[in-house]
Design goal:
By secondary structure, this protein is mostly helical. The chain is 80% helix and 0% strand. The radius of gyration is 19 Å and the shape is rod-shaped.
Length: 96
């Protein structure tokens, strides 16, 4: 199976106890990043009600945007790791 056809295969998440743990860790990281982005945007939004806080609010929006950019990065990283784990399992089966 080619890399791009197999990378988002949902069965890889449940293939082994190790893959389930990896998936859970990435889901936790994704949730923390998502929550952090939301908090940054809420704080930045409230700060924009005062002109004195505009500069700081802009930084909160920038940091929140970086967190939002991390979300798809985490998902892709997770899927590549799961794909590689599956490749290792396949090679081990061939050796047996």
């Amino acid at each position: 199976m080619s890399f791009w056809r197999g990378i988002f295969d949902h069965d890889r998440r449940e293939a082994t106890p190790e893959s389930r743990r990896l998936y859970a860790r990435f889901e936790l990281a994704h949730t923390v990043v998502d929550f952090s982005a939301a908090v940054c945007f809420i704080i930045g939004s409230v700060m924009f009600f005062s002109e004195a806080w505009t500069y700081t609010a802009t930084w909160y929006f920038t940091v929140g945007s970086v967190f939002f950019a991390m979300k798809p990065t985490l998902k892709l990283w997770r899927e590549v790791r799961l794909y590689r784990m599956g490749q290792t399992d396949e090679l081990a089966r061939r050796v047996e």
